[in-house]
């Protein structure tokens, strides 16, 4: 290797060493943004305490004991369904059903339908037709205490 090439290599190596040293100095003086963010989050979590949502105690009748703001639950969607009746059949008989087949239900003609909200019985009613659409007229509402007993 010639002396000129060695000098150039040494100069290049010195430049790299100086650049790396300068970068190391800058890294030591810079604050790690992730560490700062994690430290800030930890300090805010330790100073803040979670505020639990108010829960109303129910009396034996299922009514709230105190006035409670129910606005937060008013927009929760529920599924309401009407049940004419039920039956139990084997898969063999189910596969034999075709158009025009009649399935016998466990209800008598004229007996009220069940009104279910999220599969919980809340009322009984009868079918009505209004403006060419089916509807149900509620004839009997299940009491709150009975509904709560069925949930347990």
TrEMBL record:
<feature type="compositionally biased region" description="Low complexity">
    <location>
        <begin position="35"/>
        <end position="50"/>
    </location>
</feature>
<keyword id="KW-0969">Cilium</keyword>
<keyword id="KW-0145">Chemotaxis</keyword>
<dbReference type="InterPro" id="IPR001172">
    <property type="entry name" value="FliN_T3SS_HrcQb"/>
</dbReference>
<keyword id="KW-0472">Membrane</keyword>
<keyword id="KW-0966">Cell projection</keyword>
<keyword id="KW-0975">Bacterial flagellum</keyword>
<dbReference type="InterPro" id="IPR036429">
    <property type="entry name" value="SpoA-like_sf"/>
</dbReference>
<keyword id="KW-1003">Cell membrane</keyword>
<keyword id="KW-0283">Flagellar rotation</keyword>
<feature type="compositionally biased region" description="Basic and acidic residues">
    <location>
        <begin position="57"/>
        <end position="68"/>
    </location>
</feature>
<protein>
    <recommendedName>
        <fullName>Flagellar motor switch protein FliN</fullName>
    </recommendedName>
</protein>
<feature type="region of interest" description="Disordered">
    <location>
        <begin position="19"/>
        <end position="69"/>
    </location>
</feature>
<keyword id="KW-0282">Flagellum</keyword>
<dbReference type="InterPro" id="IPR012826">
    <property type="entry name" value="FliN"/>
</dbReference>
<comment type="similarity">
    <text>Belongs to the FliN/MopA/SpaO family.</text>
</comment>
<dbReference type="InterPro" id="IPR001543">
    <property type="entry name" value="FliN-like_C"/>
</dbReference>
<dbReference type="Pfam" id="PF01052">
    <property type="entry name" value="FliMN_C"/>
</dbReference>
<feature type="domain" description="Flagellar motor switch protein FliN-like C-terminal">
    <location>
        <begin position="72"/>
        <end position="142"/>
    </location>
</feature>
<dbReference type="InterPro" id="IPR051469">
    <property type="entry name" value="FliN/MopA/SpaO"/>
</dbReference>
<comment type="function">
    <text>FliN is one of three proteins (FliG, FliN, FliM) that form the rotor-mounted switch complex (C ring), located at the base of the basal body. This complex interacts with the CheY and CheZ chemotaxis proteins, in addition to contacting components of the motor that determine the direction of flagellar rotation.</text>
</comment>
């Amino acid at each position: 290797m010639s002396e000129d090439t060695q000098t150039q290599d040494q100069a290049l190596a010195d430049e790299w060493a100086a650049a790396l040293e300068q970068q190391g100095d800058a890294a030591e003086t810079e604050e790690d943004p992730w560490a700062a963010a994690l430290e800030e989050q930890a300090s805010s979590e330790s100073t803040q305490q979670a505020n639990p949502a108010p829960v109303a105690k129910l009396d034996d009748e299922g009514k709230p004991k105190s006035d409670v703001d129910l606005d937060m639950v008013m927009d929760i969607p529920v599924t309401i369904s009407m049940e004419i009746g039920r039956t139990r059949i084997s898969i063999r008989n189910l596969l034999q059903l075709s158009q025009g087949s009649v399935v016998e239900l466990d209800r008598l003609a004229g007996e009220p339908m069940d009104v279910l909200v999220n599969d919980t019985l809340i009322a009984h009613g009868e079918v009505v037709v209004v403006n060419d659409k089916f509807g149900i007229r509620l004839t009997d509402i299940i009491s709150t205490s009975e509904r709560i007993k069925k949930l347990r």
